[in-house]
Write a structure and sequence with these properties.
heterodimer; A: mainly alpha; 10 helices; 0% strand; globular; B: 338 residues; mainly alpha; 15 helices; 60% helix
């Protein structure tokens, strides 16, 4: 596996932001009432994430360490504004459905976390691939939650009334807030079972720990540097 | 070795009460209510209870098999959960929805948190609330399709809904009066209608010392006081005093509050163990029920009030830890301050 595909694998499986790092929980729980909403939210976050990682990585040597967070926010906010305008122009209904959660991508902790722990310490191409991997991981997570909630709660699949036609009575709670927590909890539990089995088979997966991104496998060497700089 | 030489830490003397026996008492105490439910709603009520109980017992067995744990259905708690849940359903509920309720109660609310005694809210009530949100229409459809043993088909509103529409009083044009509420010949969920049978059950629970009266009395008392002061017909609204009393009595006997106070709020795992705490818990349930019934969107609020109060239990226990024998109050405070 070369260093670029490794980034994709890392973002989608090993450090999946939704199921492993548990980042970006607010949109995860709030907008996944249907698969299409989850997909839309995931993809718009992915676009912002790729470009923010790329731009931050390009400017990483120019941004003074002491003002790096405001600088990151400015870059992310500009990108989010562009995405928001584009969505309003071309995907009006999706934009209405996602509402305030599109502008809130600015403060999505996945984006800031990747900027802080990866893009500000690695080259632009690698950072862009990291953005693709993390973004896709997030998209898959959100779409999966949205799909399950939509199937159980409304009896439709991507707005197609497949199950409803078969006479299925929707369990409305799944499209409401409690359903989001239930589905997320069961998916995370399932993911943990898979991870345990993989570890037992001798494929140890990096465990996330307390740092902002949980991405300690990639930041251990840098952390010492940054604390030294801070002093 | 002689038994006198047995060395162990306290407790040295144990009562012969087992979980199994406690649960059996609860089941026996619920039998009058269940029998009346079957009389009042027909044989489908029995079918619904059987299906829900089976669903609970089977879920617990399957969970224990998958988790490779000892099967715990012998303690009868799954049967009790199933019965309480079924008695909380309208008789017309589709059977598969009842099965889902049973599975949710046992797997999600009880077993995933560690089984009996570890659950943080009453499984049956949590499942009822789940069903209420999931199948709102079916769970609040109290119109029966077939005649019961007295030959009645219920087609009107429940007493509680009627009370809400007549602003809390049992007006002469109300279909059900206090004596109907007491006997239980009214529409509603299977187990909530008959105050008489519930009181017989409560008497069994109290005589067998399965429950103490602290929670039910403080629950019903605080609810009555709340309705007395804030209800639609209260002393503050300027109604005549006998209207106020009738309306408080009607609120006490309509809906699930009697069932909730004696059978659900008193669940051991989800109520405080300290005496003061139990009274506080009862008041908490009573006030919340009052708030939900008076100011909430739906006429009923017992199940939400109890599971919300279940969440307060750790906090209630924390502030009501009794003083250890021999320690004066002052030194305790000093120690805390130090």
């Amino acid at each position: 596996m070369n260093k670029y595909t490794e980034r994709l694998y890392n973002g989608i499986i090993k450090e999946n932001p939704t199921f492993v790092l548990m980042l970006g929980m607010c949109p995860t729980l709030a907008v996944t009432s249907s698969a299409i909403n989850g997909l839309g939210m995931g993809l718009s976050t992915t676009v912002v994430l790729i470009f923010s990682n790329l731009i931050i990585s390009l400017f990483r040597k120019r941004i003074p360490n002491s003002v790096r967070i405001p600088a990151f926010i400015v870059i992310v906010a500009s990108l989010v504004t562009i995405v928001e305008f584009l969505m309003k122009a071309y995907f009006q209904s999706l934009s209405d459905a996602l509402g305030v959660y599109i502008p809130l991508i600015v403060v999505n902790c996945i984006i800031l976390g990747r900027a802080e722990s990866y893009a500000s310490k690695n080259g632009p191409i690698k950072s862009a691939f990291d953005g693709i991997g993390m973004g896709l991981g997030f998209t898959i997570g959100l779409t999966l939650i949205g799909l399950i909630r939509e199937i159980l709660g409304a009896g439709t699949v991507f707005d197609m009334p497949l199950l409803k036609d078969l006479g299925y009575t929707p369990i409305a709670i799944f499209t409401r807030a409690p359903g989001a927590f239930l589905v997320l909890a069961f998916l995370v539990a399932g993911m943990n079972i898979v991870r345990k089995k993989m570890e037992a088979k001798g494929k140890p997966l990096a465990k996330p720990s307390g740092c902002i991104s949980g991405d300690c496998a990639n930041c251990s060497s840098h952390c010492e540097n940054s604390t030294a700089e801070n002093k | 070795m002689s038994e006198l030489l047995h060395v162990s830490s306290a407790p040295h003397v144990r009562a012969k009460i087992s979980t199994n026996r406690v649960m059996l008492c609860v089941i026996i105490a619920m039998l009058p209510t269940m029998a009346f439910g079957i009389y009042n709603f027909g044989f489908r009520a029995l079918l619904l209870v059987a299906v829900t109980v089976l669903s609970c017992v089977i879920s617990e067995t399957v969970y224990n098999l998958i988790a490779k744990k000892k099967n715990t259905i012998g303690d009868l708690s799954a049967v009790v959960t199933g019965m309480i849940l079924a008695l909380n359903m309208p008789v017309t509920l589709p059977l598969w929805e009842a099965v889902i309720g049973g599975i949710f109660a046992i797997i999600v609310v009880k077993m995933l948190f560690g089984g009996l005694g570890q659950n943080f809210m009453n499984p049956a009530l949590a499942a009822r609330c789940f069903l209420l949100i999931a199948f709102a229409e079916d769970m609040s459809n109290f119109k029966t399709e077939t005649a019961n043993f007295a030959g009645t088909i219920y087609s009107g509103a429940t007493p509680l809904a009627e009370l809400e529409s007549t602003k809390g009083i049992l007006a002469p044009w109300n279909q059900y009066q206090l004596e109907d509420l007491f006997i239980g010949t009214t529409p509603g969920t299977i187990g909530e209608t008959s105050v008489l049978c519930l009181l017989i059950g409560a008497l069994i629970l109290v005589l067998t010392k399965t429950i103490s009266l602290r929670i039910p009395l403080s629950y019903l008392g605080s609810f009555a006081v709340f309705m007395f002061v804030f209800g639609a017909n209260s002393i503050t609204s300027g109604a005549a005093i006998d209207t106020v009393f009738t309306s408080v009595l009607a609120q006490l006997m309509a809906g699930g509050i009697m069932f909730g106070a004696f059978f659900m709020a008193t669940d051991y795992a989800t109520s405080p163990i300290t005496r003061k705490g139990q009274i506080l818990f009862g008041i908490c349930c009573g006030v919340l029920t009052g708030i939900f019934r008076c100011f909430g969107g739906s006429p009923e609020g017992v199940s939400y009030a109890i599971i919300l109060s279940n969440l307060f239990v750790p906090l209630i226990e924390k502030i009501t830890i009794p003083r250890a024998f021999g320690i004066p109050k002052k030194s305790l405070k000093k120690k805390e301050a130090a």
